[in-house]
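Support request from a user on the community tier.

User writes: "When I paste my C-alpha cells into the form, the page sometimes reloads and wipes my input. The last time it worked, I copied everything first. Here is what I submitted, just in case something in the input itself triggers the reload:"
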C-alpha cells in the first residue's frame, strides 16, 4: 500500500508504520497543554471534597499517576520518541457546567528537544483521568471520561497552536 497522504509522517513509502527520523531537526523549546474531564455524580464529588475515598488521597494519586504517564509515554504509544521532560504538571479542579459536574484535569509538559510533547501531555491527562476512575469505581461504575484534547502547543517546525473553543 502506497502512502498517498503525505501528512502521515509515521508511514514509510510502502505504507508501513515507522518511527519518524528527527536526527536532523534542531532542538527547540517545546510546550504542550492538554485536558481531560471526569464526569462524577454528587455522592462521589462529596466524598472527594471530604477526602474520604477509601483508596486514599485521590487528587495526589491522580497527579502522580499523570506525571508518571507523561514520563512513560514512549513505552505506551508505539511510535513516540522517548523525551527528556523538563517539567510535567497535572492540575485538577472541580467543575460544573451545562448539567455536568466532575473534575477537570489540565496537564502541561515541557522539554527542549527535536519533537513535541503533545502526546506526553495527552497521556498525562488520560492516565490521571483513568486513575480517578479506578479510585472511584466502587462508588459509581457509570463515571465518564470525556473531552480529552490538546489545548495548546508551542515550539517546533509547525509553530504555536491554540484551540479556539
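"...and here is what came back when it finally went through:"
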Amino acid at each position: 500500500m502506497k502512502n498517498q497522504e503525505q501528512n502521515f509522517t509515521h508511514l514509510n513509502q510502502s505504507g508501513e508504520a515507522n518511527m519518524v527520523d528527527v536526527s536532523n531537526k534542531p532542538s527547540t523549546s517545546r510546550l504542550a497543554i492538554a485536558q481531560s474531564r471526569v464526569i462524577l455524580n454528587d455522592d462521589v464529588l462529596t466524598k472527594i471534597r471530604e477526602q474520604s475515598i477509601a483508596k486514599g488521597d485521590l487528587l495526589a494519586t491522580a497527579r502522580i499517576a499523570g506525571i508518571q504517564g507523561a514520563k512513560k509515554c514512549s513505552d505506551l504509544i508505539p511510535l513516540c520518541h522517548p523525551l527528556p521532560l523538563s517539567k510535567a504538571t497535572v492540575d485538577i479542579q472541580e467543575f460544573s457546567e451545562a448539567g455536568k459536574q466532575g473534575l477537570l484535569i489540565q496537564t502541561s509538559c515541557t522539554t527542549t528537544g527535536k519533537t513535541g510533547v503533545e502526546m506526553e501531555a495527552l497521556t498525562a491527562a488520560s492516565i490521571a483521568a483513568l486513575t480517578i476512575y479506578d479510585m472511584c469505581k466502587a462508588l459509581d461504575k457509570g463515571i465518564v471520561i470525556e473531552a480529552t484534547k490538546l489545548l495548546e502547543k508551542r515550539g517546533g517546525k509547525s509553530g504555536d497552536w491554540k484551540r479556539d473553543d
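Agent notes: The reload is a front-end session timeout and is unrelated to the input. The longest helix spans residues 118-136. The chain has four helices and five strands. Escalated to web team.
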